[in-house]
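Revision sheet: structure tokens.
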Amino acid sequence: MRLIPDYSAHVLHTTAAVKRTELWRTLLGIVAMVAVYIPLALLFNQAVSGLTRCRPTFQDELMASDTPLAMYVLLASFALISISVFAVVKFVHKRDALTVFGPITLAVPQFLRVTGILILLGAVLMILPPYGIGGDLVPNMAFGLWALLLPLSMFAVFVQISAEEIFFRGYLQQQLGARFSSPLVWMVLPSILFGILHYQPAEAGENAVMIVVWACLFGVLMADLTARAGSIGPALAVHFVNNVTALLITSLPDALGGLSLWHTPFGMEDEAQLRAWMPVDFAMMIVSWLAARLALRR
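Predicted:
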């Protein structure tokens, strides 16, 4: 029985970064990303303000993320992160921007394979008990409209999740993995940062720390998949299916619920009820990770 994970494929993911692994360059890259992102965000916000000037309630919609338009704008804004990473990889690290995915010839088929097995897993779980989540789901959008918007909605979700994976499991894991052999560096440090950025005490209340723990563990598992696969393809797939489920199928009514078909009968403010369902989220994350590992063995 293997006690140490087989991360021999990780070298495929980090090879593109080995020529420029200096810590000062990685830190410079992060600073440069911020420098690129800020003016892009200002331009993006100005463009959105101009285009929505005839919709006086849009800023409130954007804060609540409770309409399709607000969700599309919010999810599209994550593209600015990807653009910033691509620019830094190209001009600071002097390599092809797409190398943050790992070998594309690996990333694409791995993404498709893992996505397929996760869809199958979701279908199986839907027909198995227990049924429901402690109350009737609340319809949010007419099925016809939801289905019409679904292709654009899925693309918007992919834009959002790919930005996070490109930065954390792409750029950071590549740069640290090319310099340090220990997973405690290239796996744990980016995952802690990923978790901290999910800290929302104002919205989540007493559950805020548990959500950070969830995000940290999610980051570790996605880093593990990336190291096993040699690309971020599997991590993209798990993150994509997770967020499609949470944002487009059943979402909390007060947290990014503008594109979902249904809302849960409880929201972020229902701390006890939300806390009771957190173990289910943890279990689903582990099962998805195991299913992705199974797909990679085929």
